[in-house]
Structures are given as structure tokens and as C-alpha cells.
Amino acid sequence: MLACASGPVADWLGPSPDDTRACGAPSSSGRVDGALALRVVVGDDVPASDAAALTRGLRRYFAAYGLDVGLAAPPVWIDDRPLLAGEAGASYADGVAQAAALYGPLREVVAEVATPRRDDEVVLVVVSDLLAPGSAAAQVLTEVRGLGFAPGPESAEVLGFEEFSPVALVAWSEVGRFPEGGRAAMVAHEVGHALGLAHVADADNLMAVRAFRCVPYLDSSQTAQLRRVLSLEGP
Ligand SMILES: [Zn+2]
Question: 2 alpha carbon to ligand 1 midpoint, in Å?
Fold first, then answer.
């Protein structure tokens, strides 16, 4: 499960105005050089201007690597509801039944907005909250700022199916607490998961589990991975 828990605010960019300081130089760590089409899906309680700002931040982040993020279609609005739920205290027959309860709303939304599968697009879903308060999921996970799923067998364990477009999901209530530079990195992190990038130990890397102290970087193996997933020609 590719859940990304929020750390304490002080561990992140915090109130520092220095949130545009780069951890590494994109030009020296590999480029993607291509285009990515984004489908934006927004919960109807999330302010449109905030969702738009997240999209712009994502575009700015990847532009440093020569990856041009554009919209595949106009944004779509959905009923804003937590996507990780389950009845607190309920006992389930087995792990399959438990997963179906915990991830039921998530599965519905991913099936609705990210199927049929299109590998040349990423679906970005912004809802107010990912965790339903008081739910079984909230007891297990406590905080979830975002999720990212790449199509394939690993995601099927959570979603119950493996054929869907790469999808990144963001909780505005969590991400919106951080300065704008940090928000962009958080969304880019989830898009990284959607495109198959795993967590890494280096705290200055985009795929660090927590604590962006500066604008995090992608290394050359990660940009190569993005090129492969996006089927971009090149060396
Ligand atoms: Zn993550």
C-alpha cells in the first residue's frame, strides 16, 4: 500500500519562506523531456482555485525536468467524500473482505475516473479528506495526505483490479496546510507513485517518505523510469 503519512509540520517546509530552495539541480540529475497528459478530478467541496494551484505547482515541478504537464481534458467534479473507510471495530471474515470495506469508496472512484486504462495519462484526484473520521481505515492509518497507484498486480491488492490509468490522490485538508512549494512536491510525489516510483531513503529526494526541507529532486534512475513508463524515445 502506497500510503504517505503526514509528518509533523515542523519536519516539512514549515513556515519558512525559503521553500523554493532546490535540494539538487535537475539539469545534472537526468531529464524526462516529454509530455504528460493530466486528468484532474476534484471533490466539490475543494475550492476550484486551490485545485488549480495544485495543478500549476505540479506543472512547475516537472517542468524543471523537461516534462510538460498539460490537461487531457477539462477538470471533472465529483461528490466529495473520504475514500478510505470501513466500519470501526467491525470484524471481517478475511483480508479480502476487510480490504473491500476499507477501500470500497476508493475502488469506486478509481474505477469511475481511471478506467479504461490509458498509460499516457495520469489521473489526479483532489478530495477534502482521504480518511473517513472514526472509520476502521482512520484507526489503522491515522493520517493520509496522498496515495498513488500504478496499474499492475501490486495495486490490485488494494484496488481489487489492476487495469486502470496511473492515478494520484491527494487530501486537500492535509496538503493545504503546507506552503505552496511543499504542496507541489507532495502532489508530484503521488504522481511519482502513479508512474511506478517507489519510496527512497534520501530525504531530499521527491520519493522520500517524509520531510521535504527544500524542493526535492529526482535522480537519473528515476527520470529514466519516467521515460520508460511514458514510452519516451531517447538515449
Ligand atoms: Zn509515498
Answer: 6
Sequence spans of domains, the chain: 3-7+29-229
d(CA 163, CA 165): 7
Whole-number Å distance, alpha carbon 109 to ligand 1 midpoint, is 20
Residue 14: all three cell numbers together: 514549515
SS (H, E, C) 5-30: CCCCHHHCCCCCCCCCCECCCHHHCC
Residue 61: closest CA among 212, 215, 167, 204: 215
Ligand 1 centre and the CA of 4: distance in Å? 4
The pTM assigned to this predicted structure is 0.88
CA of 189 relative to ligand 1 center, distance in Å: 6
Phi-psi region of 101 (alpha: psi -120 to 50; beta: other; left: phi over 0): alpha
Residue 26's pLDDT band, with cuts at 50, 70 and 90, is low
Amino acid at 211: A
Q: What is the pLDDT of residues 150-163, one digit of tens each?
A: 999 999 989 999 99
Q: Ligand 1 mean position to 191 CA, how many Å?
A: 9
* Cα of 63 vs its chain's centroid, Å: 17
For domain 3-7+29-229, give the fold: Collagenase (Catalytic Domain) (3.40.390)
Q: Assess contact for 169 and 120: CB atoms under 8 A.
A: no
